Amino acid sequence: MYVVLSSIPTQVAMSRLIPNNIESSMFSLQTGLLNLTNLWWSKILGNYINDWFVGVKTENIDQLYKLYAIGLVCAFVPIAFLWIVPTNAEVRATQRCIEFLDQYEVSEHLRKADGVEANSKLGKNVLKDIKAPV
Fold it and tell me: Are the beta carbons of 119 and 134 closer than 8 angstroms?
């Protein structure tokens, strides 16, 4: 359940920021990284922390509380990175930029396909329809 709840915010942010044509590739990359992190890397890191700092063995689990304390502290480490999450205004601005670039690329493609020069009347009309992000 923790894995699901921890991945929802990143999936929502990615769904808003990633352009439509590469969305599935980015979601598969994110899923692969989450699986690598949660299923493999966390176990390896936990074993190294135990071997290097705590030393809990199957014969003596007196220091097990230290591992639980380290795990609890590590669970709150992502809070230190909340400043990286974009605000709603930043997401909207990024979406407008992506839409503008998509429209610009389409108009450039149409202009080249029709053989229309940039300073012709038709070229100006195509570019006039494109609204720059504010």
Answer: no
